[in-house]
Design goal:
Blueprint lengths: L1 H14 L4 H10 L16 H14 L4 E2 L37 E2 L2 E2 L1 H7 L2 H8 L11 E2 L1
Antiparallel strand pairs: 1-4, 2-3
Helix pairs in contact: 1-3
């Protein structure tokens, strides 16, 4: 029960950026990263340590739903629709870091996707539907 409750609080911290809890924890513990990538500091509270210990429950199933692609690191974030870890497994690139670099005028830039990624990853990514209206990326 404790694990489930801590995971639920972690989900709130990861997805409810307007909440007071998010703002307090962001200001104190993960100023330059996201909750999913936050590190344990040397002077962390018991509550923060507990949230980070149970963050692994969220990481097993959380992934990004692509909106504008500005929040999603191509190589580090879970965002592709595949079983397992939802990550790109193709070759890396120093030129492309953000999913937004694969999007042009609300559509996938097929040439860049095929140039940067392997054929298996490119096929999966080009099948991801994009919204016609600009939206923010969303954790799901």
């Amino acid at each position: 029960m404790n694990i489930a409750l801590l995971a639920k609080q972690g989900w709130r911290v990861a997805t409810k950026e307007a909440s007071l809890l998010f703002k307090v924890l962001k200001g104190r513990y993960f100023k330059r990263s996201s909750f999913l990538h936050a590190k344990l500091g040397s002077n962390s509270s018991y509550g923060w340590r507990s949230l980070l210990e149970r963050r692994n429950v969220l990481l097993k199933g959380v992934r990004w739903q692509v909106g504008d692609g500005r929040s999603i690191d191509v190589w580090k974030e879970p965002w592709v629709s595949r079983r397992g870890d939802f990550r790109v497994h193709g070759r890396g690139s120093n030129e492309v870091q953000w999913v937004s670099q694969f999007i042009r005028n609300g559509q996938w830039n097929r040439n860049i996707v095929l140039q940067v990624l392997g054929p298996e990853d490119a096929k999966i990514i080009l099948a991801i539907p994009l919204s016609r209206m600009p939206t923010r990326d969303k954790l799901v």
